[in-house]
Design goal:
10 helices, 5-stranded antiparallel beta sheet, globular, alpha+beta, binds zinc ion, about 400 residues
Length: about 400
């Protein structure tokens, strides 16, 4: 199975320069590929008579030999037709760069056209990329790990020095890197490795469980796991402290945002956020792995719905964690050879009584602040049908668990 691993890169100055120019080169290739694609498309429209185009649409077999030759002369733009044109137009300076960058750029362009035409891509039509965009990057399938460091493929024509790149992050499991995507955001470099790994099948336990995910905690039949342990309090205090400083500065003078001292404080704030997220992701990793160690089948909810229910403030902080949780649950179920069930998005896991199956509707519904009509608290579930009483999240867990057949 294939796994994606993201790590932070720490290139030396030489390699920083190399990475930057590769980002520029990727953008050059991508933009050139788009214009080449468009040209091929247009020249086909102009070069082929309408009768031939109609035949292509309706009955390809009715083309005469001459018409077939004409069609071959004006190919539909594709991965191969664009790549061969770009390669044939290569200039001398381009041999200083890995040929993989060009190949991947054309491949990715072909992919996004396909997604666009199948209406699967929300990003829409592929567009030209600009140097001003804060996120830059490139991809290669010839990277490898050497002595715990990343080694990029050095092009033949390249004369300068070439170093391995130190990285930090998760320990990279053994196995060949099939793919490496490097990004630069705000002058920070990161790499995502796609690695082929053997699944590590965990022993079967014959048990199942369900997870009810909430803003800062997860419930299972084993109890609650908090994503906001007390040890994080000093960091949250720091966040508050920096936010207050920034707000005060903005109040005094709105134009202060461009000043050096403001930006320094903002960087500190961002760094604190990063540390919190890293700790929380770590907790998530432990939590999800333990789940699969102890259980064969896990039921989770469709978290998109949960995301929408959350307040705006909670959203900003925890949206990424919900995504991370779902992702971890998915790839770990494959990795460990276990089963993950995702509940239907309309499954009323909060409103259903786990004892008698009664589903609350209308005014009886339990909301984030409890129930006004009956004056129940937000963490209480009381069934008006059979009188069953439970903790709200625990009741949801039991409802999810009922989905296992
Ligand atoms: Zn009931």
């Amino acid at each position: 199975m294939k796994l994606n691993h993201q790590v932070r890169l720490y290139p030396n100055n030489t390699m920083k320069h190399v990475l930057d120019s590769l980002c520029d080169y990727r953008r050059y290739c991508w933009n050139k590929a788009i214009s080449c694609w468009n040209e091929q498309y247009e020249s086909r429209l102009i070069g082929l008579p309408e009768s031939v185009i109609n035949k292509l649409k309706n009955d390809v077999n009715s083309l005469t030999l001459e018409e077939q030759e004409l069609v071959n002369q004006y190919p539909t733009p594709s991965h191969y037709s664009v790549q061969s044109e770009l390669v044939s137009q290569k200039e001398d300076w381009q041999y200083n760069f890995s040929s993989r960058v060009l190949q991947q750029a054309v491949k990715d362009l072909a992919k996004s056209w396909k997604l666009f035409f199948n209406n699967q891509d929300t990003a829409g039509r592929p567009t030209f990329k600009t140097k001003k965009s804060p996120k830059q990057g490139f991809k290669t399938d010839r990277a490898s790990i050497r002595g715990g460091k990343l080694l990029l493929d050095k092009p033949r024509g390249y004369q300068g020095k070439w170093y391995t790149i130190r990285f930090r992050g998760l320990t990279i499991p053994d196995g060949k890197i099939t793919y490496c995507s490097i990004t630069r955001v705000n002058n920070k470099y990161a790499a995502t490795f796609t690695i082929d790994v053997e699944p590590t099948i965990l022993p079967k336990t014959g048990k199942q469980n369900a997870v009810d995910a909430n803003v800062d905690h997860f419930d299972t039949t084993d109890g609650r796991v908090s994503l906001r342990p007390k040890t994080l309090n000093p960091l949250y205090d720091k966040v508050k402290h920096y936010q207050r400083i920034l707000a005060r500065k903005r109040c005094k003078n709105p134009r202060v945002i461009n000043s050096k001292s403001y930006q320094v404080t903002r960087t500190k704030l961002q760094r604190t956020y990063e540390r919190i997220t890293n700790i929380q992701k770590d907790l998530l990793h432990k939590f999800t792995t333990e789940l699969y160690q102890n259980y064969d089948t896990i039921v989770i909810e469709d978290l998109d719905v949960k995301k929408m229910q959350m307040s705006k403030k909670a959203k900003n902080l925890h949206r990424s964690l919900f995504g991370a949780f779902r992702q971890m649950m998915e790839y770990k179920s494959q990795k460990f050879g276990k089963t993950l069930i995702v509940a239907d998005r309309y499954y009323p896991s909060t409103q259903r009584c786990s004892f008698c199956g009664f589903i609350k509707t209308g005014e009886d519904k339990i909301t984030l602040s409890g129930n006004e009509k009956y004056g129940t608290r937000h963490n209480e579930y009381i069934c008006y049908h059979c009188g069953y009483k439970d903790d709200r999240d625990h009741n949801a867990v039991l409802n999810l668990l009922a989905l296992v057949k």
